[in-house]
Amino acid sequence: MFKIQEIREIIKLVDASSIDEFVYEADGAKVKLKKNGGATEVVAPKKEVIAPVVQQAAPTAPVVAAPVKVEVAPAVPVAEDASLHKITSPMVGTFYAAPNPDSPVFVQVGDKVGDESIVCIVEAMKLFNEIEAEIKGEIVEVLVKDGQLVEYGQPLFLVKAE
């Protein structure tokens, strides 16, 4: 599977170029980029695959970010328990457990949260979006790792409701 940094670099390079469509396949994973109203599509096998490092050239023109959609298979299987509430990602982006690398995490297993407690940040398009628990309870499990790419609707935390 592609690393998020590799995908970001490919997006920057395609955006800076004059091409409108780009497809790259490696080890069963596929990245397809379309500019001007198109979408970004990442197709990967369900098992974890380590992709080779892509040789990258420096962009020759200023890079302007274009809205893209990245879809990946969830990395962590979610425990199915009807008594637990799932806090899900409202968008595609990068999950951050703390406000910055030098700060403690927002929540960890065993912490109590309220309706408006901030549990993490999801960064999308250089915007850092604070995600609230929206339920009172106790964090039972953290389902993603810091810096991991998450998709829309992907469960991030399991919470035992009070």
* CATH architecture assignment of the largest domain: Beta Barrel
Low-confidence stretches: 73-79
Arithmetic mean pLDDT = 77
Biggest beta-sheet profile: 4 strands, antiparallel
- CATH class term of the largest domain: Mainly Beta
Number of helices, where a helix is a run of at least 4 consecutive DSSP H or I residues: 1
Which structural class do you get from the secondary structure elements? mainly beta
Strand proportion: 25-35%
> CATH topology of the largest domain, anyone?
OB fold (Dihydrolipoamide Acetyltransferase, E2P)
Give, in order, the helices and strands.
Answer: HEEEEEEEEEEE
Overall outline: elongated
Over the alpha carbons, how many angstroms does the gyration radius reach? Answer: 18 Å
Instruction: Give the tally of β-strands.
Output: 11
Task: Give the domain tally.
Answer: 2
The end-to-end span amounts to 38 Å
Strand order of the largest sheet: 4-11-9-6
